[in-house]
């Protein structure tokens, strides 16, 4: 019997593996209705649609109704019609490996940099994963040199911290991200470009990030013309890649641009799945998913030396910093940095508004003399902002208030210290040294 069975093995290997199949019954907009598979599916299950004249189209189950599954596709729906076969596919996972450093990939793990296939890792990582348990999660590490003086001195960051960069379009977010990717003190940088303009990818890689920055980075990109599932998946893929490197003991810098476009993709998915719009058209699922994504960044479980330091950009519409996504993200993260258009129009970049930016972990990472310098600089900037209109109109007479006179004298020096070119690098120590020089009395200098 044993010999007889062994003799049949070559014939058995020629059979296709067992797969479950259904069919597309209806389509409307982004939404597909699949029948015949509902008893074997769950939310988030992956399907493959056998479209005519093109490779199989991946899709995801986002809902159920009356024994049918609602699915959305990861690519355009050309070639898909009634009766198109839908097959149950393996769960989503990314085989992250060391060879992914220096590469640009799409959210499904496919290279888009024209440099050939990626060498897969031994164990694929799920795209969705829970954060470490709160009770066993490590505490934040020592302070981190971000390389940007305005952040190092006024929003000092610790390893494993999560900061939000809040700005309207065209205020320098991408340039600031490139400065962080190239200059921050980290082992690995993971960049998630969610909903970016397609023409900007190569400009960002070649001019902003540069060969040295790219060599220690993995870039995940889903352009603005990608279906909403791809834009959403870019954020999940970036977290999966960052978790891989952090759990191998590396210090990872995660840069995501932007959380707003991730939320917009979630809104499109939710509306297509039948969720009701609540706040400015956003569905309830958006505000449930944001903390699940953002909490994955940070320190790992106790005993793991690696950590994910996350900087997430938030695109505020019409300079409204209280819009729903910005408000929700600000409450989840460990600090926020505000980029102001008026500061950029004055010619000072990065256009960071010091008075509206803060890091919630500053008390635990500054020496007493550094904290005193920062408080004094903030007080001077605040007084100058309060008196600026009177000074501009000539209503303030020099000598009337020594504190105002000091602010008028020192603020230009602080502003000069905050200005930084794209190629400049620094540390927290050098940022405070420059701030101390700027706060020296101008008359004494």
Automatic annotation (TrEMBL):
Record keywords, A-Z: ATP-binding, Cell projection, Cilium, Cytoplasm, Flagellum, Nucleotide-binding, Protein transport, Translocase, Transport
Compartments in which it is found: Cytoplasm
Name of protein: Flagellar protein export ATPase FliI
CDD domains: ATPase_flagellum-secretory_path_III (cd01136)
Source organism superkingdom: Bacteria
Domain AAA+ ATPase: 159-344
Catalytic activities: ATP + H2O + cellular proteinSide 1 = ADP + phosphate + cellular proteinSide 2
Region Disordered, annotated ranges: 113-139
Keyword set includes ATP-binding: yes
Cited Pfam families: ATP-synt_ab, T3SS_ATPase_C
């Amino acid at each position: 019997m044993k010999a007889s069975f062994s003799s049949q093995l070559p014939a058995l290997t020629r059979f296709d593996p067992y797969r479950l199949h259904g069919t597309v019954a209806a389509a409307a907009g982004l939404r597909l209705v699949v029948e015949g598979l509902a008893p074997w599916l769950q939310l988030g299950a992956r399907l493959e649609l056998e479209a005519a004249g093109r490779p199989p189209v991946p899709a995801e189950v986002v809902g159920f109704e009356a024994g049918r599954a609602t699915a959305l596709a990861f690519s355009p729906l050309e070639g898909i019609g009634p009766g198109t076969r839908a097959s149950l596919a393996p769960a989503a996972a990314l085989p992250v490996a060391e060879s992914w450093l220096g590469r640009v990939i799409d959210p499904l793990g496919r290279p888009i940099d024209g440099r050939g296939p990626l060498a897969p890792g031994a164990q694929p990582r799920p795209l969705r994963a829970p954060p470490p348990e709160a009770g066993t999660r490590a505490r934040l590490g020592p302070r981190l040199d971000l390389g940007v003086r305005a952040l190092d001195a006024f929003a000092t960051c610790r390893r494993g911290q999560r900061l939000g960069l809040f700005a309207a379009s065209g205020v320098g977010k991408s340039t600031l991200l490139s400065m962080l990717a190239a200059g921050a003190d980290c082992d690995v940088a993971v960049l998630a470009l969610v909903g970016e303009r397609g023409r900007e990818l190569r400009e960002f890689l070649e001019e902003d990030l540069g060969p040295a920055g790219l060599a220690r980075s993995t870039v995940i990109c889903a352009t603005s013309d990608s279906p909403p599932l791809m834009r959403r998946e870019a954020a999940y893929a970036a977290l999966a890649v960052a978790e891989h490197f952090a759990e191998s003991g590396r210090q990872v810098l995660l840069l995501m641009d932007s959380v707003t476009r991730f939320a917009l993709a979630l809104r499109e998915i939710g509306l297509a799945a039948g969720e009701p719009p609540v706040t400015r058209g956003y569905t309830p699922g958006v505000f449930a998913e944001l903390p699940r994504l953002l909490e994955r960044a940070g320190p790992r479980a106790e005993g793991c030396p690696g950590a994910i330091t996350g900087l997430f950009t938030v695109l505020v519409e019409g300079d409204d910093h209280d819009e729903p996504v910005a408000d929700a993200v600000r409450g989840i993260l460990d600090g926020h940095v505000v980029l102001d258009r008026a500061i950029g129009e004055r010619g000072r970049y990065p256009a960071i508004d010091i008075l509206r930016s803060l890091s919630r972990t500053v008390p635990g990472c500054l020496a007493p003399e550094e904290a005193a310098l920062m408080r004094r600089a903030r007080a001077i900037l605040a007084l100058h902002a309060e008196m600026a209109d009177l000074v501009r109109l000539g209503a303030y007479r020099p000598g009337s208030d020594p504190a105002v006179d000091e602010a008028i004298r020192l603020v230009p020096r602080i502003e000069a210290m905050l200005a930084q070119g794209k190629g400049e690098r620094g540390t927290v120590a050098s940022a405070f040294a420059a701030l101390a020089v700027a706060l020296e009395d101008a008359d004494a200098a």
